[in-house]
Amino acid sequence: MPLHLTKIAFQSESPATLKAWLESHADEARLTTRYLPKRLEEMDGGSLYWIHGHVLVGRSPILGFQETGQGRYWIRLAPRLIPVRTAPKRAHQGWRYLEDKDAPPDLGGGEADDLEAMPPAMLKELARLGLV
Q: Mind listing the pLDDT tens digit for each residue in 90-99?
C-alpha cells in the first residue's frame, strides 16, 4: 500500500483554479520543498492529496522527487487533479503523510463534475456535515 502526502492548495481560490494550474503544465507539475520525505521509499505509487478550505478535495499522482540544484527538491506531480470524496482535514504547514487506509476514495464521472461546480463554501459545509 503506497503512502501519500497532504498539502494545502496555497493561493488557490477554488478546486477549479487548482485544477487549471495543474493542467497548465505539459508533462508534470512541480512543487518545491526543502526536505525529502523520510519515508520516500513507501511513496511509490502514492499521491499528493490537496487541502482546500480545510477539506481534502482531490489528489495528484506523485511521479517522483528531484533535486533542484539549489539545496531543495521538487515534488514532481502528474498534471491533473483527480476528485476524491471530500473529507475534513486541518490546515498545516508543509506536507504531512497520509496512510493509504485513511485516504478518501476517488469520485467518478458525474459526481466529480457536480462537486467541482459547487461553491467552495457550500462544499466545505456539506463535507463538515458528512454529506459529501
A: 888 888 999 9
